[in-house]
Amino acid sequence: MTLTYKPAGTIAHRLDPRSKLGVQIAFAIAAFAHTTLGGLAVLTALGGVLLAVARLPVGRTLWELRFVVVLVTLPVLIEGLTWDTPPFSVAEARGPALASYRVLLIVLVSATYVRSTPIRDSEAAIRWAIPGKAGRLLATGVALVFRFLPVLRADLAATRRAMAARLGSERPLTERMELIAVGGLQRAFGRADRLALAMNARCFAWNPTLPDLRFSRVDLPAFCLTGALLLWAAL
Questions:
Q1: Long-range contacts formed by 59-63: CB under 8 A, 24+ apart
Q2: pLDDT tens per residue across span 221-233
Q3: Where are the domains of the chain?
Q4: Whole-prediction pTM
C-alpha cells in the first residue's frame, strides 16, 4: 500500500513537515491559478519530480487512487456528452477535463506528503500552525484519520477476499455491494468503539508530547519552491 507512511532515507522524508505542507499549499494555489494546458504541463513535470523524490511509483499510486480517478473523470464524460452528432463534444469537455486533471495532480502531490511524513510529525505541524484547542482538536482528528483509513481499507479488502473464497463473485452485483457495505460498516463501528475504549483506558490527553520540529538546510529548496509557486500564482 503506497498511500501510507513508509520510513526511508529520501530527501522528502528528511524535510520538516511544515516545509512540505508549504509546498502542498503553494502547489494547489498555482494549480488553481494556472488551469491551462501550459500551466498544467509545468505542474505535471513538477509533480513527477516530487513523486520521484518521495520514491512513489506513478502507476501504483494511480491504482491506489483509482476511485479518485473515476470521480474526476465522470464530470468530463457527462459534460462532453451531447444529444447530437457527434455524441461527444471535445470543446464542451475541455474545461472540465482541465479542472479534473488539476484536482488529480493536487491529490498525487499530496500522496508524497502522506508517504514521507510520520503521523506524529503531522500532528506537531498542525499544532504549530493552529495554536490553542482548535489546533489540538484538528491535529487529533488528522492523526485518527491517517491511522484509521488504512485499517478500514484492509477490512474491506479482507471482506472482498472472504466473499471471493466463498464464490461470492457469482452473486448479483447489488447483493455483493450490500454485503460489502454492511460488513464494512459493522467493522468500522466495532473498531471505533474499541478505539474509544482504548483511548479512555489510556487517559487520552489533549496535550500529548509531540516531537520537536526543526528546520534544516535540507528545507531550503522546499522554501524556494514554495516561494516560486506562490509568485507564479500571483503573476
A1: 60/2, 61/2, 61/3, 61/108, 61/111, 62/108
A2: 999 999 999 999 9
A3: 11-118+214-234, 124-201
A4: 0.77
